[in-house]
């Protein structure tokens, strides 16, 4: 009972209850006046009506006071969380009026929240050196280097922004703030400082590049030596198989080194693309004609389900050959004896894209690992048991090449039934990224 009384007194003092207490004073005045001038029965009727209104009024204002306090408490708790976050948090309404600017954001942009809260932030602020960095985060189109990490139609929007003065690498995630009915209330940006992370990744990449370059030159010489000996008719028969095995092993190691160099170039944004208009059907036929002999050695039949009409796409022929080679090589290597591979091409209805699929009858990929398939160095458990060799770099390179072409890649698979790898390419040249950027994360 005492707890209930304390709760009543707590909410009774809230601003929302003032109108109720004013009503009570007014009602008491009416009761006093009408008791003098109105007959007894009518007087009691008025009192009853006033009591009924008072009860309804009290219930409404009391619940409103409780609700507003709960919202305020939740708001304060949320602000407390935002203040303690290591990442910068900025929230603003649709008119860009800044409503939240946490401590991490203050340190990151060297701006006090008092200077910016409840002010409308516009692109013109970028002319002020103190607000230039913040302007480029709120309006990424003003930033010097912006790398999108999400599709333009997706929410939340994710971009990486690089600054040289000061040296800063940030990942900005922008989310909509909606009310329960879906009405837009504003936006929230979470700014993650990735300067150290990017610096460490760059150092690793530089180390891999130097190491791979140092390895490639002697390996190329060793491979050339084995190749020369392999074709030398004067070599005794008992040494020929050893030389042949040595050449195969060297070539595999050289391929791994080249893959590492390719990954390093991709992640540095210097893989180098030369896009030209190409007949996609003719291009695929040329690649398949080369791979047909390899498939026959493994006892695998290869088919091409091609459309009636030619399809023109803008691609880097060398890079796309690498994509198709990789997918076909996997389809051959992880297939079953007397298996099949079907390559199909079709235009996607009502979209400016063409879809290519590579279907095999191989060992398949576990369902719980399909989402990791295009991660760097990833290899499925069953594939490792089936084929112990491999780096897990091939599909990672494939994904990045296709994204740089404006396309996507994904896979469907059933264990012991086979897999289908799909990739898309835009027919509209405007959908191809203008700048070469690393999009592998």
TrEMBL record:
Enzyme class, spelled out: transferase
InterPro entries: BphY/WalK/GraS-like, HATPase_C_sf, HATPase_dom, His_kinase_dom, HisK_dim/P_dom, HisK_dim/P_sf, PAS, PAS-like_dom_sf
GO biological processes: cellular response to phosphate starvation
SMART domains registered for this protein in UniProt: HATPase_c (SM00387), HisKA (SM00388), PAS (SM00091)
Gene Ontology terms, MF aspect: phosphoprotein phosphatase activity; phosphorelay sensor kinase activity
Domain Histidine kinase positions: 210-429
Pfam families to which the protein is assigned, alphabetical: HATPase_c, HisKA
Lineage of producing organism: Bacteria, Candidatus Liptoniibacteriota
Species of the source: Candidatus Liptonbacteria bacterium CG11_big_fil_rev_8_21_14_0_20_35_14
Protein name, per record: histidine kinase
Key words, A-Z: Kinase, Membrane, Phosphoprotein, Transferase, Transmembrane, Transmembrane helix, Two-component regulatory system
SUPFAM superfamilies in the record: ATPase domain of HSP90 chaperone/DNA topoisomerase II/histidine kinase, Homodimeric domain of signal transducing histidine kinase, PYP-like sensor domain (PAS domain)
Its EC number(s): 2.7.13.3
Gene Ontology CC terms, in alphabetical order: plasma membrane
Catalytic reactions of this protein: ATP + protein L-histidine = ADP + protein N-phospho-L-histidine
Transmembrane segments: 20-38, 44-65
């Amino acid at each position: 009972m005492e707890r209930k009384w304390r709760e009543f007194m707590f909410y009774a003092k809230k601003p929302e209850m003032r109108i109720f207490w004013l009503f009570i004073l007014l009602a008491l005045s009416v009761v006093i006046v009408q008791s003098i001038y109105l007959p007894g029965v009518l007087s009691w009727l008025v009192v009853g009506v006033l009591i009924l209104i008072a009860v309804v009024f009290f219930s409404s204002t009391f619940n409103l006071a409780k609700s507003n306090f709960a919202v305020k408490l939740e708001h304060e708790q949320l602000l407390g969380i935002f203040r303690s976050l290591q990442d910068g948090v900025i929230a603003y309404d649709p008119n860009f009026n800044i409503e939240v600017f946490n401590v991490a954001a203050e340190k990151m942009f060297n701006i006090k929240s008092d200077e910016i809260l409840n002010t409308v932030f516009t692109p013109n602020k970028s002319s002020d050196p103190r607000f230039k960095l913040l302007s480029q985060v709120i309006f990424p189109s003003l930033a010097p280097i912006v790398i999108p990490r999400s599709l333009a139609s997706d929410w939340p929007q994710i971009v990486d922004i690089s600054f040289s003065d000061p040296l800063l690498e940030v990942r900005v995630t922008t989310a909509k703030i909606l009310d329960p009915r879906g009405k837009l209330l504003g936006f929230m940006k979470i700014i993650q400082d990735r300067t150290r992370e990017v610096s460490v990744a760059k150092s690793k990449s530089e180390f891999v590049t130097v190491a791979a370059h140092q390895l490639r030159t002697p390996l190329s010489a060793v491979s050339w030596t084995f190749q020369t000996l392999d074709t030398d008719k004067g070599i005794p028969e008992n040494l020929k198989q050893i030389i042949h095995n040595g050449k195969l092993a060297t070539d595999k190691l050289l391929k791994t080194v080249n893959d590492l160099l390719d990954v390093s170039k991709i992640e540095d944004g210097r893989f180098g693309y030369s896009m030209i208009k190409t007949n996609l059907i003719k291009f695929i036929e040329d690649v398949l004609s080369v791979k047909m002999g390899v498939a026959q050695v493994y006892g695998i039949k290869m088919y091409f389900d091609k459309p009636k009409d030619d399809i023109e796409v803008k691609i880097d022929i060398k890079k796309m050959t690498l994509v198709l080679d990789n997918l076909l090589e996997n389809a051959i290597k992880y297939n079953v004896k007397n298996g099949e591979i079907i390559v199909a091409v079709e235009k996607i209805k009502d979209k400016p894209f063409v879809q290519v699929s590579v279907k095999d009858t191989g060992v398949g990929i576990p369902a719980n690992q399909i989402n990791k398939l295009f991660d760097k160095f990833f290899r499925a458990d069953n594939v490792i048991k089936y084929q112990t060799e491999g780096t897990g770099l091939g599909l990672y390179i494939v994904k990045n090449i296709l994204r740089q072409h404006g396309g996507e890649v994904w896979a469907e698979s059933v264990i012991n039934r086979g897999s289908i790898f799909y990739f898309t390419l835009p027919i509209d040249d405007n959908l191809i990224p203008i700048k070469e950027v690393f999009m592998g994360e």
